[in-house]
Predict the structure.
Amino acid sequence: MQTGILPPAGRNVVVVGTQWGDEGKGKVVDWMTDHAQGVVRFQGGHNAGHTLVIAGRKTALQLIPSGIMREGVKCYIGNGVVVDPKHLLSEIERLEALGLEVRSRLFISESCPLILPFHVEIDRAREAQRESCGSGKIGTTGKGIGPAYEDKVARRALRVQDLKHPTRLEAKLRTLLELHNAELTGVLGAQPLELQPMLDDALRAAEQLRPMMADVGYRLFQAHGVGDNLLFEGAQGTLLDIDHGTYPYVTSSNCVAGNAAAGSGLGPGMLHYVLGITKAYTTRVGSGPFPTELDIETPGTIGHHLSTVGQERGTVTGRARRCGWLDAAALKRSIIINGVSGLCITKLDVLDGLQEIKICTGYELDGRVVDVLPLDADEIEQCKPIYETMPGWSDTTAGLTNWEQLPAPARRYLERVQALIGAPIDMVSTGPDRVHTILLRHPFRA
Ligand code: IMP
């Protein structure tokens, strides 16, 4: 029985990467914030790098949600995010130096685990050790993400809420430092860290962060209740997900759409549409299997074209990204895991001028054909891609804003991708600026 009038409820959209990250989520989130009153990060940390180009000006965000670039939009850092307090403050200050008002519209969950200096040291020392004993680097960003999530799961993490209690903070920090120094010195052959400088930094950060600490889940519920539209901004990509990605060559959080609920505190019944962001080809940074990978070093090759025309270098680490053809069999896996409602294809213009374009439709594995990415990284290494070849186009698609303006072969390519993976293309991004966008169906109005 319905009693009284239900409050107006906003519409909530989740944006996730469907490949190995760097699909161009930041631009799309920024573009959609004209329809949102709040943007929420729900996983990862400052390993993410979202590059935004607004009126020709380039800004890179790592931890703060992309909505911060739009005046009046509230930004929420949910409990699923790991927060490096020092980095967060420096990012706030960098945005303030651009003239943006940040502190009054940024809300940080008290439940976020903290990334502390020993997490960074351990992350880097472990990678160095993996490399020296030839056991295979993961290629992490070296930001301490994995070790911080380990502490969370081990139920010993310091959380943002501990910053409010100096005595509790010091006691927990001392215990955790002892534990991690033992690993640094005893296992990794690194130097121990000292308590006092770490504590002083944490206390300084606490003072500044305190006004922004919040019960984010409850705030989101209230915002939803008064009709705010919320945008959930995924970081990394589905194939880097700790459970569903190419384990162990993955990040340490769940990057899939389902985690928008657990990582923010707003239930899944209040999420209405999942937008999957897909680059028109594929890239990956760090180690791990990549069936459609091409040579990016040799001038004149397709891989070199994708790497140079696409400017495929990491926002956070500056590393050259590995490049290859679009992998529809891997995308199919992402579409299923995320329950994608619609896709946004990005960087289509990078394919301009190629005579032929290939799409991987499946793989040959142990004498059989498989049409979806296997779950085992060793099996993926054995996969030989099966390609379908389509004609390319010579006209430029850069900056186009209308589907009808696209060259016919470009439309056919997109339609084929859509048919292969079984999800509708609702948007196409044709350049880095907000305006370089073709809209077919708006996620907030779909
Ligand atoms: P971590 O997240 O720093 O632990 O790194 C684990 C893996 O995820 C490595 O292969 C990284 O290159 C990759 N990774 C982490 N963040 C991003 C991102 O924002 N884009 C692409 N790859 C990422």
